[in-house]
Amino acid sequence: TKRNPDQPEFIQAITEVIESVWPFLKANPRFTELSLLDRLVEPERVVIFRVSWIDDAGQVQVNRGYRVQHNSALGPYKGGLRFHPSVNLAILKFLAFEQTLKNSLTTLPIGGGKGGSDFNPKGKSQQEVMRFCQAFITELYRHIGSNTDVPAGDIGVGGREVGYMAGMYKKLTNQADCVFTGKGISFGGSLIRPEATGYGTVYFAKHMLAEKNMTFDGLRVSVSGSGNVAQFAIEKALALGAKVITASDSSGTVIDEDGFTTEKLELLKQIKNVEYGRVSDYATRIGARFEANVRPWHVPVDVALPCATQNELDGDDAKALIKNNVVCVAEGANMPSTLEAVTLFEDNHILFAPGKASNAGGVATSGLEMSQNAMRLSWTQEEVDTRLQEIMQGIHDACVKYGRRDNGSISYVDGANIAGFVKVAEAMLAQGVV
Ligand code: NDP
């Protein structure tokens, strides 16, 4: 706390992990040698830079850009870029720390990083978005590379933005190597990458439900968010027979008791991805209820999938879900549940998966994109999806291995933290104090 004043999200993420691995560390003190914990929570490097660009009115705009290169013990830094007005160092440091453990859980050779800018893409023209992306990469390009640091998308950064940044990177460096994942299919992207985080979250939840001999078929599901992760979580939950009741954005929640259909989901994608519209527009067009400034968690469901942003599910939300007999909560977003909510879920024996485990399918498939690019090959949809499913099963099993309690219940929080920690810690100890 002393070294990181005014960084509550970073402190929150560190606290959760350290508290959860503490009993394991006491039983295995070799993991505390060489000041390992102190080194693990300190990013290897943080770059902060000016991004100036000219808007459509001819005015100069100035934003702040960041890249947190947290840990490279396992491989090149890997993690997304977020463009959102709320972006600051505390949020990016928490995300980069979480990313390090998440990437370790995938078992792929990738380190952890995160970056972005306080730029707000909402309401900007296509030309403004392109000019911003080009200005952003004009500085970031000197800090990244296919063997150094490989960014991807996150909130506010989808295929369009990755394309603009990858194009400018190529122009500046004369290198066509894989320095972004989440690229378009026409220039090296991987099939299933757009779907991977949402699909992976549902695959993970499927294994959690199997612990209670349940399947998604016929279950009521609430999803928050309506962006990349939310859309594909809805798609896979529907494919597995679930009834998805909600979607949301920062202005409110749509509640559709009839449930999503494939056609309704296509309309949501059209409104969010093509028209850059709001969930309220979607509610109007399908004739469903829209609740302004309300989150989805008061709606009775069996499974809740928070897929929007950090700290969007607090203690009161958790109490409402528990009162309504929720069985399983799997995080598609990063740290959507507050510490209080997580404790409530675990104390009430709700199956609860932290994002670093359940949303790791996105970065895992980014790792598969890097492999395909390195081999100059493209795998089929089935090949990538099969590998994604195997990786999610592997992460689930690792969580169960390290998170099984004496009373037989599973703490996915402890399991994910310990399993992710052990691999990074082994690698850091083996590489000495650097
Ligand atoms: P998108 O930008 O595609 O979608 C974000 C969604 O969250 C939008 O519906 C947005 O609504 C909503 N949202 C953003 N901020 C808030 C807020 N303060 N309150 C309520 N809703 C909000 O991002 P992604 O779907 O890619 O990312 C969602 C989450 O998943 C993030 O936590 C991200 O870090 C995480 N994640 C993403 C991965 C990926 O592969 N994309 C991989 C792993 C994790 P609005 O339009 O109103 O802003």
UniProtKB/TrEMBL annotation:
<protein>
    <recommendedName>
        <fullName>Glutamate dehydrogenase</fullName>
    </recommendedName>
</protein>
<dbReference type="InterPro" id="IPR006097">
    <property type="entry name" value="Glu/Leu/Phe/Val/Trp_DH_dimer"/>
</dbReference>
<comment type="similarity">
    <text>Belongs to the Glu/Leu/Phe/Val dehydrogenases family.</text>
</comment>
<comment type="function">
    <text>Catalyzes the reversible oxidative deamination of glutamate to alpha-ketoglutarate and ammonia.</text>
</comment>
<dbReference type="Pfam" id="PF02812">
    <property type="entry name" value="ELFV_dehydrog_N"/>
</dbReference>
<comment type="subunit">
    <text>Homohexamer.</text>
</comment>
<dbReference type="InterPro" id="IPR033922">
    <property type="entry name" value="NAD_bind_Glu_DH"/>
</dbReference>
<keyword id="KW-0560">Oxidoreductase</keyword>
<feature type="domain" description="Glutamate/phenylalanine/leucine/valine/L-tryptophan dehydrogenase C-terminal">
    <location>
        <begin position="190"/>
        <end position="432"/>
    </location>
</feature>
<dbReference type="Pfam" id="PF00208">
    <property type="entry name" value="ELFV_dehydrog"/>
</dbReference>
<dbReference type="InterPro" id="IPR046346">
    <property type="entry name" value="Aminoacid_DH-like_N_sf"/>
</dbReference>
<dbReference type="InterPro" id="IPR036291">
    <property type="entry name" value="NAD(P)-bd_dom_sf"/>
</dbReference>
<dbReference type="InterPro" id="IPR033524">
    <property type="entry name" value="Glu/Leu/Phe/Val_DH_AS"/>
</dbReference>
<dbReference type="GO" id="GO:0004354">
    <property type="term" value="F:glutamate dehydrogenase (NADP+) activity"/>
</dbReference>
<dbReference type="InterPro" id="IPR050724">
    <property type="entry name" value="Glu_Leu_Phe_Val_DH"/>
</dbReference>
<dbReference type="InterPro" id="IPR006096">
    <property type="entry name" value="Glu/Leu/Phe/Val/Trp_DH_C"/>
</dbReference>
<dbReference type="InterPro" id="IPR006095">
    <property type="entry name" value="Glu/Leu/Phe/Val/Trp_DH"/>
</dbReference>
<dbReference type="InterPro" id="IPR014362">
    <property type="entry name" value="Glu_DH"/>
</dbReference>
